[in-house]
# Entry
Amino acid sequence: MAGLDPLIHAPARLQLVTALSAVSEAEFATLRSALEVSDSVLSKHVSALVEAGYVRSRKSVHAGRRTTWVSLTPAGRRALHDHVAALRRLIDAVQ
Amino acid sequence: MESNRGAEDPLAALAAADDARQRLTTGLRLPVGFYPALAGGVAVQVGAAAYGIAAQTVTGVAVALAGAAVFLGVAAFLLHRFSRTNGVRVDGLASQVVLVAGARASLAYLGALAVGIVAAFQSVWWLVAVASVAAGIGCALGARHWWRAYRHDPAAHEGGASPRTLGLLAVAACLGCAVLLVLG
# Structure
């Protein structure tokens, strides 16, 4: 499947990067609620995408509580755009 | 979400991804009193700037600087509240609030500021007040217009100046005013 990005082809990863494309940065807990997954699942996908350079994460402290903020990098945004375009081509080809 | 069905079915994969994005954005709320506070902050800034420019004195520059500080304080507070309430940061919103991005809002702001400055030079203070309020309302309406567009298509409207860029611009603006204050 030409143009499909194996790093974000899995539904969980595609949902994660698509959700992130709507905001500049999101708190880990907010993402977890939006994606309806566990901490460990989200953490695993975020780590993999950070390693690929598609996602950036940073630690922050608010009112004594540690939080993690996650954002899409320009490379991640491009990858999402290309992947969605490839999926749409695939859909068009089938239809 | 862990199902692999979406990977096999592109249509289902895209639909699930859109659902996830919608779940994240439909719950976003502006802080209570967002528009009146923004309008008030802009009105104070425009009024102070008009007075300061027309006065052409050290006191005038100090008043203009104080007005800018009030506006930046209100903007920073509103953006912080938005971020804390929703657990997300949206640079497009920050640009709307701090830089008055958007053609209509910019036009309303600059037009009202120009009227305010001319009125201040003529010492027509009621017109300065009217122009300040008009600038505030124009900016608030511009922000509301952007918010509606963002809710309709978040990915297309989330972009804007980063907090670092906005911080640098604010520091540069304040330093410029401070230099004017010292030279004056």
